[in-house]
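Morning. Coffee machine broken again, so started the prediction first thing and wrote up yesterday's gels while waiting. Chain of 309 residues, entered below exactly as on the submission form.
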Amino acid sequence: MHNPQPAIPTPSLSGSVTATTTNSNNNNNNNIEDDAAAAAAAISAASTAAGEEQEPLRIAILLNSYRSRLLPAIRASYERTIRAVAPPGTQLAFYEPANRAAHFPDPARFDLVVVGGSNVDPRKSHPWILEVHDFLRRLVADFPHKKVLGICWGHQTIARVFGGKVVDAAYPEMGVATVHLTEAGRQFFGDVGAEGTLRLQQHHRREVAAAAAGFACLARGNQCLVSESNTVLTFQGHPEKDAETARLRLHDSLRWFGFDAALDEKAWARLLYRLDAEDDGPAVWRRILQWVREPPAPGPGVLDRTSRI
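Came back before lunch.
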């Protein structure tokens, strides 16, 4: 892979960036789904059979919340959930492009780049959002084999950048919800999705109405997408969010649903139940980290599908 100059800004892992060590359409899309899922399943089975000890990974995480007091808690949630399943020695580095100009990782130094959630509508064109768009375009151009993971706002933003459509959801979602897998999704997730569903924390008011060309749907309603190249994987749900972190956004219930603990005790109790419900986050993270090690699929890369906004 090449790293042309000038390239994406390359802040170091020291200073303002924290490094931590862990222990742990339709016909074409159907073809894409079948090919991507079959390749992933074969690689997954071979990897499991080999029983090889996994090398540590280097993961860059973009925290995109604008001036949020919850940023330390969000970072801690990533650390807890990834630490629980990642190989010993795995490194995490955090970046805040919404709050620090041009604060992006050098992809050459990482195995995975995560584009996380945000408190801002992804359809806006604030300067920092356009910088994230530019970063993503250059990332797939300069590092076409690099693995990229989008979560929530990252899922929506990646869809928007590469030609998909983001709209307001009919109903906001908060708490653990069931995600129904497509057949391709069942193959991709293997034992994790053996029953045809995943349970993930949700916290969103917008959704991907149309996936970008060259992306296969692994779950109904565009809840999970993977690129034809097997280099970009995105989730509307939050594998990185545990109940402790989910409860920090309970205050959104009044704005989103029109109630809080004082106005409707029963509705509040149901919401708390959903937030505290068991989810598949750890198993999904295991599959994500396994996917990071899979080779890209032959064929067009994501860059070939890029749209101009």
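Residues 223 and 236 are 5 Å apart (CA to CA). Going to sketch it on the whiteboard this afternoon.
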